[in-house]
């Protein structure tokens, strides 16, 4: 009887101890093979630190997931932490006071000193306070090629976009699709952005997107970009898949020769067991202008009433930026780390190219950082139309300028 | 109590009235209130969160100068006219066939009505697969020997609406058929006898006697189908998601896209107000025809 009492007493004492691990629900839209392998690293690290990661993956990509996240936050059912892209997507939520201020975490861990490039921390900062933890850098300006498609045809693997276009007729004659492109508007928009940097060059990009120079947007250099996009449109005519990873899979299996996609495509090649450099080739900045834009993902923490959860949120924020998690996560994800002081020597060829460009400072801000979601959506719609119809480059350019003006 | 006091009108059937209060409140607050709120905020520049900063008709001007919206309206008009014509004519035809005192009528009726039991999401997905060139109809016919057979409506901007139409008709005609069949059964047998005595052919009786008599059924069907078309959303989302390009975009998808993805509530509200307007254009004449003039019994 006595032992029973002791056991009961122990149980009552021990139970709260076991429940001490604070559960945090984390929402994100990482659902493809490579992505979920990467997010599992985050969950593992968070669980190991004594808390509990409750996974809240939302399938269907950011355009589907973000409305769900936002309506949960504004509707009074906030999660513990949520993914957004660097930039203006969560700006109004921050301004409305719905997000947790992380300034003390940032100061305690010297985020100002370690986060590179600093523009990422600037994107998280509103009125001098830090509201998000940057996690990775994703650059969309990459051309992915299947080497075997070219060697089978006795061709050299293209080293830039121009060579890619020049060899496309031979690829097509062999019954392959030259360019794989998913049919969702954001992918067309991404391909167009990559062509802007690759074909148009950095100065043009900066004057349109940062200085908001509308004459440059309407000028002849930009028309060249639209013409290049019209070329690409012809090459992708037979690609009918929807999701980006289905398009990447066409390149992996050799059904298509190449794809313009962000560096997250890397994760898919990795999961398929392909080796960078021998099985596939990656060309940052389309092989023409080796610049990459520093978009990517950041975690935001909605304000919660429970102080224990708030402490857990801050622990998670610090954990995401910590060197170990940065290495583990980014190696799996194929993205670049947000700090320059860690050892990424195990990275593969493609990531090393990206790291070099980053270290060299050849970077530009991402579209989400310079334009509002409203403008981005309109551009996506316009590109969706351009890539699937025979809209002329001139008409498309006129529409493009009009949309940019709506965001001034 | 003297018993002379007149019962207060308001207190008659008090129990029933109290029971109806929650529904009345829901209608007033959720439906009417929500509608008014949406219309009011469509005149503001609300972005992610609603705010009262007036911009007049700016949102509407932008809406009507947007290619996507105009394209969505055109798509809807085309789909609507086609869908309306075919659902009603095929539905009526099926009902007439069903009305020929055939054997196993119950079985046929059940088969015809089954698709209606499926949601638009399921319908859309099923037809996306059937119409997929790699694993659907085209592949089946090719495997049967016609190697060059080509049928791929969903990936061509010119034909994608027909692909949607097939799915929509498959889902909706059974329901129309049942409404029409009920209408046909409501026609008095004496009419038929009279027509036979006069030696009028059956098809003429259907066309010139029965159809005019079924006017109320036709009008109800028309309104139900029309209201369904204007809010068309889930079928398209499941089947094509507006692709290829924007060739199968619909107004309801524009509303969602601008309210949530683009974080531009004002623009989305303006678009949904225009949709409300078009529903009213359909509903008001119908309500007038159905309820106006007549005294309720």
TrEMBL record, chain A:
Q: Which UniProt keywords apply?
A: Signal, Transport
Q: Where is the signal peptide?
A: 1-21
Location in the cell: Periplasm
Pfam families recorded: SBP_bac_1 (PF01547)
A GO CC annotation recorded here is: periplasmic space
Database matches in InterPro entries? Bact_solute-bd_prot1, SBP
Family to which the UniProt record says this protein belongs? Belongs to the bacterial solute-binding protein 1 family.
Q: Give the protein's function.
A: Part of a binding-protein-dependent transport system for a sugar.
Its name, as the record gives it, is Probable sugar-binding periplasmic protein
Gene source species = Stagnihabitans tardus
Organism phylogeny:
Bacteria, Pseudomonadati, Pseudomonadota, Alphaproteobacteria, Rhodobacterales
From TrEMBL, chain B:
The keyword Glycoprotein is assigned to this record: no
Q: Which InterPro entries match?
A: ABC_transporter_permease, MetI-like, MetI-like_sf
Pfam families noted in UniProt: BPD_transp_1
Q: Which residues form the ABC transmembrane type-1 domain?
A: 73-286
GO BP annotations listed: transmembrane transport
Record-linked PROSITE patterns: ABC_TM1 (PS50928)
Query: Its GO CC terms?
Result: plasma membrane
Topology relative to the lipid bilayer, per the entry, is: Multi-pass membrane protein
Gene3D superfamilies, sorted: MetI-like (1.10.3720.10)
- Transmembrane stretches, start-end: 21-43, 76-98, 110-130, 160-184, 205-230, 269-289
Q: Which UniProt keywords apply?
A: Cell membrane, Membrane, Transmembrane, Transmembrane helix, Transport
Provide the protein's localization: Cell membrane
Q: Which family does it belong to?
A: Belongs to the binding-protein-dependent transport system permease family.
* Entry protein name: ABC transporter permease subunit
Annotated source species:
Stagnihabitans tardus
Lineage of the source organism?
Answer: Bacteria, Pseudomonadati, Pseudomonadota, Alphaproteobacteria, Rhodobacterales
């Amino acid at each position: 009887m006595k032992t029973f009492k002791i056991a009961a007493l122990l149980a009552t004492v021990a139970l709260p101890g076991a429940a001490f691990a604070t559960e945090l629900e984390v929402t994100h839209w990482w659902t493809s093979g490579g992505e979920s392998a990467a997010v599992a690293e985050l969950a593992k690290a968070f669980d190991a630190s004594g808390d509990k990661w409750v996974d809240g993956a939302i399938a269907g990509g950011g355009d589907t997931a973000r409305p769900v996240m936002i309506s949960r936050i504004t509707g009074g059912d906030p999660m513990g932490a949520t993914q957004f892209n660097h930039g203006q997507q969560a700006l109004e939520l921050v301004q409305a006071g719905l997000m947790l201020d992380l300034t003390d975490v940032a100061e305690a861990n010297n985020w100002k000193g370690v986060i590179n490039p600093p523009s990422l921390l600037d994107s998280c900062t509103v009125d001098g306070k830090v509201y998000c933890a940057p996690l990775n850098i994703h650059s969309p300006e990459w051309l992915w090629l299947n080497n075997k498609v070219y060697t089978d045809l006795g061709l050299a693997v293209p080293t830039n976009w121009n060579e890619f276009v020049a060899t496309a007729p031979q690829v097509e004659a062999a019954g392959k699709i030259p360019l794989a492109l998913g049919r969702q508007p954001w992918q067309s928009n991404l391909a167009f952005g990559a062509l802007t940097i690759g074909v148009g060059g950095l100065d043009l990009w900066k004057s349109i997107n940062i200085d908001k120079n509308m004459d440059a947007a309407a000028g002849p250099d930009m028309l060249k970009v639209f013409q290049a996009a019209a070329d690409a449109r012809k090459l992708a005519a037979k690609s009918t898949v929807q999701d980006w990873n289905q398009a990447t899979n066409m390149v992996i299996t050799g059904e298509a020769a190449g794809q313009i996609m962000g560096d997250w495509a890397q994760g898919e090649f990795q999961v398929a067991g392909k080796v960078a450099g021998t099985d596939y080739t990656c060309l940052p900045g389309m092989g023409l202008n080796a610049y990459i834009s520093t978009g990517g993902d950041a975690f935001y923490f909605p304000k919660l009433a429970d102080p224990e959860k708030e402490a857990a949120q801050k622990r998670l924020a610090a954990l995401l930026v910590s060197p170990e998690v940065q290495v583990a996560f980014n190696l799996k994800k194929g993205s670049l780390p947000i700090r320059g002081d860690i050892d990424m020597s195990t990275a593969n060829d493609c990531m090393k190219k990206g790291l070099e460009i980053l270290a060299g400072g050849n970077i530009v801000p991402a579209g989400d950082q310079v334009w509002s979601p409203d403008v981005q959506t309109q551009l996506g719609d316009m590109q969706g139309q351009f890539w699937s119809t025979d809209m002329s480059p001139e008409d498309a350019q006129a529409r493009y300028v009009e949309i940019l003006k709506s965001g001034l | 109590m003297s018993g002379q006091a007149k019962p207060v009108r308001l207190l008659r059937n008090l129990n029933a009235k109290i029971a109806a209060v929650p529904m009345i409140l829901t209608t007033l607050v959720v439906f009417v209130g929500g509608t008014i709120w949406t219309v009011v905020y469509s005149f503001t520049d609300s972005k992610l969160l609603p705010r009262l900063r007036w911009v007049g008709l700016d949102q509407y001007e932008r809406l009507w100068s947007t290619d996507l919206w105009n394209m969505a309206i055109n798509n809807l008009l085309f789909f609507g006219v086609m869908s309306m014509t075919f659902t009603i004519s095929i539905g009526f035809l099926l009902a007439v066939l069903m009305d020929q005192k055939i054997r196993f009528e119950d079985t046929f009726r059940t088969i015809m009505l089954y698709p209606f039991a499926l949601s638009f999401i399921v319908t859309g997905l099923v037809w996306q697969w059937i119409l997929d060139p790699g694993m659907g109809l085209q592949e089946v016919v090719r495997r049967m020997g016609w190697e060059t057979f080509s049928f791929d409506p969903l990936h061509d901007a010119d034909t994608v609406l027909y692909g949607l139409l097939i799915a929509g008709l498959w889902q909706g005609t059974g329901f129309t058929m049942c409404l029409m069949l009920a209408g046909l059964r409501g026609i008095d047998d004496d009419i038929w006898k009279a027509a036979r005595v006069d030696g009028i052919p059956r098809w003429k009786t259907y066309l010139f006697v029965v159809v005019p008599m079924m006017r109320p059924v036709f009008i109800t069907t028309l309104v139900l189908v029309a209201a369904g078309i204007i809010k068309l959303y889930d079928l398209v989302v499941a089947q094509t998601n507006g692709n290829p390009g924007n060739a199968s975009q619909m107004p309801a998808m524009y509303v969602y896209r601008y309210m949530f993805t683009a974080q531009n509530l004002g623009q989305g509200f303006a678009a949904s107000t225009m949709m409300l307007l078009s529903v009213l254009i359909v509903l008001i004449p119908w309500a007038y025809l159905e309820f106006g003039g007549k005294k309720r019994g």
